Amino acid sequence: MAFVKDMLRMWAHSWKRFISIAMITLLGVAVLTGIYAGCRDAFRSTDRFFDAQGLHDVQVLSTAGLSNGDIAALRKVNGVAKVQAERSQEVTFDLDGRKSATMQEIGTDGIDQPYLQEGRMPKKAGEIAVTRKFIRDSGKHIGSRLTVTPESASSDTSDTSDTNGADGTNETNGTDEAPSFPTELTIVGVVLDPQNLSNPDGYSAMTSFRSTATTDYTFFAPSDGVTGTLYTSATLLVKGGAAESTFDESYENTVKQVTDRIDGTVKTDRQKARRQELLDAGNKKIADARAEADKKFADAQSQIDANRQQFNQQVDQIVSMQAGAAAAGAAANGANAGAAAAAGATTPQLDETTRETMRETIIAASPELTQAKQQLDQAQSQLNEQKASTEHTLKTKENELKTSIPQVRWYVQDRQSLGGFSALKSDLDSIQSLGNAFPIVFLLVAVMMSLTAMARMVEEDRSLIGTYVGLGYGRLAVASRYLLFALLACLIGGGLGLIAGFLGIPAFLLVVLQGMYVMPGLRLEYDWLYGSLGIALFVVGVLAATIYACVQEMRQTPAALLRPKAPRAGSRILLERIRPVWNRMGFLGKVTARNIFRFKSRLIMTVGGVAGCTALIVCGLAINDTVADLGIKQYRDIYQYDLMVVSDDSDASAMRTKVASDGRVTSSLDVRIESGDLTVAGSGDGDSGKAGSSGSESIQLVAVPEKHLSDLGEMVTLQPVSSGILGTSGVGKTGSLKLDDDGVIVAQSAASALGVKAGSKVRLTNGDGVQATAKVSAVNRNLIGSDVYVSETYYAKLFDSKDAKNTKNSKSSEDSEALTWNAMLAKLSGSDTSQTDYAESLEEDGSVMKAVSCAHMADSFKFDLMGAVVALIVALAGGLALVVLFTLANTNVSERVREMATLKVLGFFDREVHHYVNREMMILTVMGVILGLPLGRLVGGMLTMALNMPSLYFEVEVKPLSYVIAAVATMAFALLVQLFVNPVLDRIDPISSLKSVE
Questions:
Q1: Is-contact 63 270, C-beta < 8 A?
Q2: What's the pTM?
């Protein structure tokens, strides 16, 4: 019992060490669990939402649409739980200019169901549900009416055959019809599209840019009123997919097994079958046209033959009459009347030659008969010509049919191809990577501080330990006094850290996340396993340090422990050997130097602890500086143009005329902009069509006219880059990069995320969904957005643009316009404000789809999520620095009580004692700061390399002010700690301290 009381008394006496260990553990556990818990809560709530709304695991698209036969084949794939055939149509409407939307049929099989936020779901034809983004942009509300105009359907998808045999075989029953939706619409509900969780009022809404290949909005309509037997896509749910977390690798493996089966069996067969259906449909149309033409020609020939027969009969009657009259005249001149009578009673028999001669004579003598014969001959000639022409046309169509119908391509995509899904996943993964890195530094600092504090605590009780061991107490029992002390401090600090880690920090992060994404059903959850392991990690580290300190002392005999510890043998420090410096130092300066460098463990602990804390602060500020400069570097340095204007293809000419007539442009470059995907090409065929792998990135494909390739460098700074280390990259000379016809130039942001470099093979998907394997000729410095630049000729080569194949050698300006240049990069005159206003005014024009001012983007670009995490990290690092300095200062004072008492006996005033002690701490702090500043830059570079986010590349930037802030903050913490240490020095009693047994 006395042993326990003494132990509790010792604990109470060491309350400062207890608080220090508890605080360090609290901060470490909070950092370890907080960022993880915030990201995990977002992951789990999003996964539950996806499962509830039935977000598809796999989506299948086809360049020729999907038929019932395709859907039936997908249902037979092993591992597919459910297949939903979907119909959609692109429409346009007037909303402060021409806007586009996708009319999406709400599936009846429970896949990709929109989440109702307001109103009700549409049920009848003409009713639609819209997104909150449309409500915000349009100012409309539930009950508002809207008229839309369908865009022209593709001819390839409107002339296909229906294959829905009753026995499962393909049977051609007619021609498929493209989907068609009602055009007079009424808004009845506001929904959230599960494929895009972006908050329309958040960061993504202010900085996102949609190119012409992507519609502005999505309208959801019921099946009622939708016509058409051709499907635009098929969405699939995979067996076992809902049981896995959509963000885990196990889910990706489950889905990949199904996509591999589709790629390996179904896709090839159905692509061939679908093309054969198109060929059969074309041949059937030709055969039907030939049969119909033959029938018409036969009817026309019958009519001509009937008319000719009637004409011949009339002529034959005239011939007979003339022959009879001639015979009668000849008989009248004969010998007897009987012979004449006999001759007149019968028609004379004429040979065919005589009869034909008489016919021709009669026809020639009669203008009416001559005209009738000419009409008949002309009709026959025209009919023969029409028959020959029709047969030639049909023969030509038969020969051209196979070449005119392209190969059908399927694109099998998983959730990674959804921009909203991949952006959310990448954001959370990047933040979580920060949460995995920073606790390591906290743990190392905690172990160092615990070792320092507990070693001093054990050393102070040296004689007491010897007494207990001499009385027969076991070394383990004696060590348990300190082990339980450290354990209790860790458990209390860890428990408080769990509260902060699973409640405080996640609540803070989720508030920021909800400003970027809409995540229904979000709630905070506690992870018992991770929380327990988090505390255990710090408990093990601190206890290991405590055990080491106890072993170092208790390995001695009780007699040795009862004697005071022998003073450390005197030794010279390196500075003493530098005579010019040492001889000019004062007495107190020499004492301070000896105290600092002779006690190397204290030097290492103090400098290491301060350096770690300073490095954390620098690292956080480095990330903040990097993010803060992204917009300025991209929109003022890399982008040399001031304005990007995009229109629909049909309005491209009107858009250029409008911009030119305003007189604001000093120079411009016409380009074509499409949204697409870039995928790292595998070892297989580049046209495999699988765009949903993890190595995929959404891009902005920029095609440049062949005659103006050299002008691209005037609008965009072209600088080749090569991968570096620690967040750096080698940047080549400006202007040394040229766009040519041998490959594409890929933005650094996309290349870094996918590991692409010059010479790599990638698979590009253009705005029409056509894929091709391209060579990367160079990687261009680019921080925001994923631009891929391609020449007009290489674009034609990749995507079989027949109209553009010969543009490189074209002479006329008309030939150079083979591609529709739907965008313009322009330099403007005037201030930044006037340029921003001009861009806003252009968006009100009906021919302009989007106008982006680089000045506005540079000023408005911000990254709220990263800024919030950086602020959190800097705050926690500052708290750690304060605790570390407090622990080291108190340990330093406790080690040198007799020394301080001696100084007071020698006549030092309290202020002089303060200066004597604090000067050493300040010097050690300065040394730690000097070491921590470059260490922070090093760690910051390593962390930014791990932040592979869609369309962003973090080019590490640490401003001089950040180094100053980190150094000043650490020094300020050291000065603050002095306010707590000075009263302790004042309370040292010289007499009692010098009487102590040591």
A1: no
A2: 0.70
